């Protein structure tokens, strides 16, 4: 698709004219750099559009829309281009023809699907089908947003299948501080707040994912989103009967099958829907063990009148996998990727890989409803219900006569197997059952230039989490991963380190008002939200505090102002607030060692909630070249930071109060609309985050004030290049993450690293019942054979240090995620 000599000459003349125009603008007194930038970008678009106009466009005098919408089939996308922003803003239309594909790719989103247009007055990025469909079918949503500004993704396997051991942070705030919505449903468990994104939808069913860096929308049913909001949207069912099938094979014995069937419009009911099923098996990329996942998605929709829509959404997920061992720096240096749990069982050993099995089975149900009540009134309501059950297990060794139940001797243990020694190997079982339901409702009234919204969100959460032990068979086998034949104390009680029951209720009231002026160029928004959270916790273990809890409320105001300089250029400023409680059930209970009876953790009474105040100022340009810039500042009190510790070999989540923190930075994002089938993309962020005070360790304090905050790399960069001519397609993505500290004293860190991913494929013509069949190859982590990708377990200090009061504070070693090695996935996909 080369450019001929006449086109080249025309381009040169247009570029020269634009340089002269730019120099005239620069000489005018009072011109802002922002206006100069927007003028220059618009002139560049006009230059390219002028040539395309002669070759492709038909003349027009009326703007139809400002951005290319998602397309179906070969429907053309009409995009206006301004030839002279400063004077008469003469407009013409450039026709961008969307491609036809079975996977939903249209090749119309800037940056190869990485930069859909945004208008909200805060930093917001996203990905569309143009990007999602070209990723490995095994990738989870967290791994797919890795290229967006401010995102640090800490992988733990190259296929993206293990989302129980991965890290995500945005602007230095980890995944428990990022709200996760799926079709408007909050799907992260309300206490642990881990997203478990593979529990929601298969990649083939995801229409878009949006990341808001900073505070969430005031109407969102979230109370933990101090670091932003991740929103996942399902595709709507087709109006015609059909479906999609995908078969994937790859590294580590990967095998995956997916099928989806659309009902089309069902008679004259106005209802349409789809159901899909997928099955996946693969070996762990290091060590041994096979993982598997069964998954079901469904969505049914009914639309009527103008602006009325009711949906029903369901997702069922059944995964089984094994924990991968997280090394310290010393262990990584000695063993590298070979540091893992043992392949074979040895008598008396507790590090056998089959003891590290975990399961997180979930069912998500939701029924979003949007109603147009007339007279400017509209009602949006989303009832939802989620149930989850599973276990997180690990290996341990128990004394037959010297074990403790809480702070009391357990006596001679029962159900200890056939081993007659003084101690025996056992599996430590952390099983759980939890469900949470809720209702989020917003009533809006639009009158003239003003829109007023009021709403209420209620959520109920119930979790039971006992720990159990079960003796191993002579070859390391486990009779029941749920502890059906659990070890008992001499008096018949179940031997347990903790037996926790938690109930949480959340009530949230909000009001938001938006006013538009100057022909909708100026938008003023102000809102207020009051969120009240109540937790009641019981711990049914001898010697422990039986009942604990907490009630907290937080006022959460937000203000935002945006102004459209031109139809393609926008500036905005906002001020936001957010909060969250500790993201760990373990913060509220006592724990005693099973082997010694010594207390290993004391319950926290009324732990302080994290509270954040943030400010942003930003600029956007949308067009042939789209640009988004933002400067941000955050101040935190009682910064809650999650870390992983171990209780009798079982990994548990703990919450550390990191005190005050300040974070300042800048981010940029640039993407090109498809031009000669190419769509480049680049994003970058600079972050300076510091701990503001010394942290308490025992009866002393480490000198952490002024240190760089943990998990907060200064520089992140992502570069992408996509090509798609309708038949041949491919993309390259590179991510760079600078050094990250793993201790509050900054005495240990992981080095910077880069990841490289490549995909390419070919779409065939439709044949008989096969619609747009295609073959696709994804190559992940090219050139990498394992690296430290993130921090799993934090430490205040890795080396011994003198405290503020002169005490010697011993160091402890952090643990790390190991980024996956190279992997490839070959996929065959077709519509029908």
TrEMBL record:
Membrane topology, record value: Multi-pass membrane protein
Limits of the TonB-dependent receptor-like beta-barrel domain: 322-782
Residue span, TonB-dependent receptor plug domain: 118-217
Predominant subcellular localization, coarse grouping: membrane
Database matches in InterPro entries: Beta-barrel_TonB, Beta-barrel_TonB_sf, Plug_dom, Plug_dom_sf, TonB-dep_rcpt-like
Domain of life: Bacteria
Pfam family, one: Plug
Keyword Oxidoreductase: no
Subcellular location: Cell outer membrane
The entry's keywords: Cell outer membrane, Ion transport, Iron, Iron transport, Membrane, Receptor, Signal, TonB box, Transmembrane, Transmembrane beta strand, Transport
Protein family membership: Belongs to the TonB-dependent receptor family.
Name by which UniProt lists this protein: TonB-dependent receptor
């Amino acid at each position: 698709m080369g450019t001929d000599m006449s086109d080249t000459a025309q381009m040169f003349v247009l570029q020269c004219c634009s340089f002269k125009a730019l120099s005239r603008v620069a000489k005018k007194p009072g011109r802002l750099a922002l206006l100069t930038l927007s003028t220059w970008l618009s002139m560049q678009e006009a230059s390219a559009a002028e040539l395309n106009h002669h070759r492709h466009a038909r003349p027009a005098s009326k703007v139809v829309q400002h951005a290319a919408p998602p397309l179906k089939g070969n429907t053309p996308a009409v995009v206006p281009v301004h030839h002279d922003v400063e004077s008469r803003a003469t407009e013409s239309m450039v026709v961008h023809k969307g491609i036809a594909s079975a996977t939903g790719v249209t090749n119309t989103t800037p940056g190869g699907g990485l930069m859909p247009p945004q208008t909200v007055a805060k930093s917001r990025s996203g990905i569309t089908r143009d990007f999602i469909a070209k990723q490995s079918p095994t990738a989870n949503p967290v791994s797919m947003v890795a290229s967006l500004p401010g995102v640090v993704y800490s992988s733990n396997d190259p296929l993206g299948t293990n989302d129980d051991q991965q890290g995500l942070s945005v602007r230095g705030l980890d995944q428990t501080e990022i709200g996760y919505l799926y079709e408007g449903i909050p799907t992260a468990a309300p206490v642990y707040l881990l997203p478990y994104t593979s529990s929601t939808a298969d990649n083939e069913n995801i229409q878009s994912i949006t990341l808001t860096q900073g505070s969430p929308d005031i109407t969102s049913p979230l109370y933990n989103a101090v670091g932003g909001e991740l929103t996942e949207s399902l595709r709507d069912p087709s109006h015609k009967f059909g479906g999609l099938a995908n078969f994937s094979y790859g590294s580590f014995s990967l095998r995956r099958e997916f099928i989806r069937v659309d009902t089309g419009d069902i008679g004259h009911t106005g209802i349409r829907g789809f159901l899909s099923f997928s099955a996946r098996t693969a070996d762990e990329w290091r060590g041994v063990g096979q993982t598997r996942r069964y998954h079901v998605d469904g969505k049914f929709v009914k639309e009527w009148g103008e602006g009325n829509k009711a949906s029903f959404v369901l997702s069922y997920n059944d995964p089984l996998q094994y924990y991968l061992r997280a090394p310290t720096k010393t262990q990584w240096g000695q063993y590298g990727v070979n540091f893992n749990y043992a392949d074979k069982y040895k008598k008396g050993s507790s590090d056998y890989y089959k003891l590290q099995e975990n399961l997180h089975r979930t069912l998500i149900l939701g029924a979003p409803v949007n109603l147009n009540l007339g007279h400017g009134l509209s009602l949006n309501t989303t009832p939802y219900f989620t149930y989850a059950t599973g276990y997180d297990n690990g290996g341990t060794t128990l004394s037959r006569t010297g074990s403790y139940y809480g702070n009391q001797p357990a006596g001679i243990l029962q159900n200890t197997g056939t081993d007659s020694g003084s101690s025996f190997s056992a599996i430590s079982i952390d099983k759980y059952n939890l469900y949470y339901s809720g209702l989020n409702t917003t009533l809006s009234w639009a009158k003239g230039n003003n829109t007023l919204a009021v709403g209420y969100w209620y959520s109920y959460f119930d979790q039971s989490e006992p720990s159990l032990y079960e003796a191993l068979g002579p070859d390391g086998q486990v009779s029941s991963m749920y502890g059906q034949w659990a070890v008992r104390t001499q008096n018949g009680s179940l031997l347990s380190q903790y037996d926790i029951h938690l109930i949480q209720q959340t009530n949230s009231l909000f009001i938001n008002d938006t006013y538009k002026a100057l022909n909708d160029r100026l938008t003023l928004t102000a809102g207020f939200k009051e969120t009240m959270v109540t937790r009641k916790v019981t711990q049914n273990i001898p010697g422990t505090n039986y009942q604990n809890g907490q009630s907290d409320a937080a006022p959460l105001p937000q203000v935002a102002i945006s102004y459209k300089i031109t139809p393609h250029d926008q500036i905005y400023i906002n001020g936001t607030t957010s909060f969250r409680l500790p993201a760990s059930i373990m913060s509220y209970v006592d724990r005693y060692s099973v082997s010694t009876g010594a207390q290993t953790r004391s319950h926290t009474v009324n732990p302080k909630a994290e509270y954040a105040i943030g400010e942003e100022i930003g600029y956007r340009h949308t067009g042939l070249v789209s640009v988004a810039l933002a400067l941000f500042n955050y101040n935190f009190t009682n910064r809650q930071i999650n870390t992983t510790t171990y209780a009798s070999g079982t990994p548990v989540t703990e919450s550390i109060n990191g005190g005050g923190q300040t974070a300042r930075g800048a981010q940029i994002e640039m993407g090109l609309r498809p031009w000669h089938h190419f769509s480049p993309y680049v994003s970058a962020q600079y972050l300076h985050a510091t701990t503001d005070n010394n942290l308490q360790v025992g009866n002393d304090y480490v000198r952490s004030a002024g240190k760089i905050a943990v998990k907060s790399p200064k520089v992140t960069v992502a570069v992408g290049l996509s090509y798609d001519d309708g038949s041949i397609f491919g993309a390259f993505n590179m991510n760079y993450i600078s050094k990250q500290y793993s201790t509050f004293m900054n005495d240990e860190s992981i080095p910077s690293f880069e990841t490289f991913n490549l995909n390419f494929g070919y779409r065939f013509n439709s044949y008989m019942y096969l619609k747009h069949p295609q073959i696709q190859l994804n190559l992940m982590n090219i050139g990498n054979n394992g690296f430290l990708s993130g921090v799993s377990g934090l430490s205040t200090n890795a080396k011994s240090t003198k405290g503020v009061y002169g005490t010697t504070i011993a160091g402890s070693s952090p643990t790390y995620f190991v980024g996956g090695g190279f992997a490839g996935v070959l996929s065959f996909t077709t519509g029908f």
